[in-house]
Give the backbone structure.
Amino acid sequence: MELLGLIGYGLSCLAYLIFFLLLLASRQQSLSGTLTRVLGAVLCISALISCWQLYQGFSLLYVLYFEGVKNFLVTILILGVKLRSPSFKELIRHKETHQYLAVVTVLVFVSAFSIVTRQNFVWVFISFMALNLWPLVLLEQVFRNAQKRARWAVWPFVFGLGSMLVFDFVIFAQGALINQLDFNFWYLRGYLSAAMMPFILLSSKRIKNWSSDLFVSRDVVFYSSILMLSGAYLLLLALAGYVIRFLDGQWSELLSIAFMCLGLLVLFAVLFTQNFRNRIRVFISKHFFANRYDYRLEWLNLIAALERDNSQDIYESACNAISEVLQLDGCIYLQLNNVSRLEVMNFGQLKPDARSREQLDGLVSYFQTQNWIIDLAEFQVSPDIYKGLQLDEAPLINDNIEILVPVNFQQQLTGVFAMTRPANKGLLNWEDRDFVFALTKQLGNYLSLQEIQQQLSQTQQFAVFHRMSAFVLHDLKNIQAQLSLINANAEHHKGNPEFIDDVFDTVESASLRLQKVVRQLANKSMEKIKEPKQQVEIKSLLQDAIKLANMNRPQVILDCQPGLYVYADRERFAGVMMHLIENAQQASNPQDSVQLIGKKQENRLILSIRDKGCGMTQSFIRDKLFTPFSTTKGNAGMGIGVYEARQFFEENSGLMSVQSDVGKGTTFTIEMSLSEYQEIGYNNHGKIINC
């Protein structure tokens, strides 16, 4: 047998010498190519040392030292291929390389301590098992991470190195169990190593830069984890076998083998149990892997689907969007109403009958307590998963309703999405459920916000109506006040011709203003109808306003320069000035007077309304004076007169300011741009011209 081993290692030495020379001639400059050439040299030297040990008979420990170096280089090479490191410096800096170096350091110290203190090789064999398990896991990851077009180049490399590593793992596992190597296997290592050389050489030629196209796969992590757990379990078995042998003396070898066989049976039973494999897969997917769904892209797809939908029905839009993203054949939304029943908001392709609606109404309490997606196919197979759910699923399935998803807004159940099964999906797994929950959560928020927007729009429409009513009521109030003044003074002045003329002027003004009110109501707009602007002489406008105002006390004293003109709506201007004068009169004592002053300052008209009344606080002026529906008159005032006045002057490029002291009086100051006087006439066609 020793001669057979000598020939095998000799062949291996010759094979890897040829391997090294061929790679040296290829002159690959990548890190992995360099490491492969070094590995070829080390494999050649390792076979030479093993051959020399068999010929000279010196200690096998020296061979094991070089086997450790070979194993180290194999692992570094596989790490370089997996991590695609461009340089040795980058490879050494990587976190995974640091982890491997730390483990190697610990195993070296453990092995050295075991040999020095006890001359015991069990820990050496266990260390070699661990060192062979690590590159095996890496090889499995490299192969499964490779794209399909790259696997044809990778598989010879994986097969060649993997075969040698598995063979060594079995040898050292048996050595750890019985505290010695089986030399029958040891002599065969040379032949296996030589036979694997063509496979490694083939991959070195197929992969030009030793950097295959890799991607991260869930199955890779799963199978790698299974392989790692299996290797760790075998290490524990080997350690337990050593303990049994150490404790039981002469029966130790038999007990160790029996224990090893029993342990392997347990391992195979566990690994082939579907429930155990599913638990590992879910645990890995949740904690060690990215989500299957790219939520950023799916969120953008959902937004795009909502934007593309032309339906005016928000519920139809939401169902169309989720149907597009999940590739559904049908979807409906059922909203929870005030009597805790689910009301169908859109039918589409799903039309639940009375029996289905009865079953859906019975799910309200379940969704309020559990908030869990119901997969009716899963419920048929495993009803125990849905604890506390009482449901006759047959009517729903007959109506093509297969999945029910609760929708919550602010932690309250608002509705349910009922849908068909997504395309190419079996029973929903945990990740499918998370994804569907995320979509329906966003759509639930969308529906709730759209419903709030509709309610707000209706509220705004009512607010527009109330505001229009307030302006109309304010105008009617002013007209009623003018007509009341006529009645109040008719008894004393009905024989006065000037009074009669004023009455007709007032009635005409009231009639015009009533016409505007009627047009305002017919227009159904909150904005006041704007009349065409005209040239207004300020003094005459103020005189007309004072005639009406002086029917009450205190009297208004006018001091205005003649010949001052502005462009404005005369009727609105007169109404605004009348309101400001009335406010000043109402704030003053009857024995006092109100001053109305108009003057020119550069090219600006300055109007001042001064009273000696009660005044206003600065906080009221700042916060409430120009705010609609704020008044100091109680129920007697509307609180929109001053707001309307400022709005009028701002529309005509003017300003209105207020100065007031409590107990001393108030001054309203108005500034407007003056216009040059232009006489207005008519041409032969009846159109207005400037003369």
User: Anything to note?
Assistant: The radius of gyration is 48 Å.
